[in-house]
Amino acid sequence: MNDGSKKSRRRRSSSLLYQEPQESMEQLSDQAVIPNLNANWVNAKGAWAIHIVLIVALKILFTIIPGIERDTSWTLTNLTYMFGSYLMFHWVRGIPFEFNAGAYDNLNMWEQMDNGDQFTPTKKFLLSVPICLFLASTHYTHYDLTYFTINTLALLGVIIPKLPVSHRLRVSFLSGHPDDRYLDER
């Protein structure tokens, strides 16, 4: 049924979740040649403090806006930090630099940090910051059910991708299946 004039359509899985394959030997050797500047900054001095500074700055920003109550400002601080954290650590894949021959193109920043090792001091800190912010925001919203639900969903959206069970796990309706990206490039 397939003649030379028609493009054949590849059949792909209808699964929403897929596991990112391990790197090839070429990619591993490319990763070993040059340090990953995209992910190594999280271990530098002051990198942990910037998260606290951002949270305090967000809280001040949402507090000084007229008409926003204290409960709402804590929830907005929580949501903004969680959204930014998810975007930075789990959504964007690859690195913005072109010096490593695409060695990290299929990994997000969380998977690039500390060479993919789990439960390093940096990853423990970055796992604890959203939890502490969640606890503070639920306390200062007086455990209101609406705010609690919103803050809990935001926390789950940031914590689940950080867990080892989610390492290299992708949700295809959010980011697209990798086969589709490679077909579009051809």
Order of helices and strands: EHHHHHHHEHH
Let me know the number of strands: 2
Whole-number radius of gyration? 20 Å
Q: Describe the main β-sheet briefly.
A: 2 strands, antiparallel
Percent of residues in helices comes to: 55-70%
Provide the residue-averaged pLDDT.
81
Bin the strand percentage.
under 5%
Query: Which term fits the overall shape?
Result: elongated
Structural class: mainly alpha
Number of helices: 9
Adjacency order of strands in the biggest sheet: 1-2
Distance between the termini: 23 Å
Poorly predicted sequence stretches spanning 5 or more consecutive residues: 3-11, 180-186
Notes on the protein architecture:
The chain contains 9 helices and 2 strands. It has 186 residues and is mostly helical. Helix 3 runs antiparallel to helix 4, helix 3 runs parallel beside helix 6 and helix 6 runs antiparallel to helix 7. The longest helix has 22 residues. 18% of the residues are buried. The N terminus and C terminus are likely disordered.
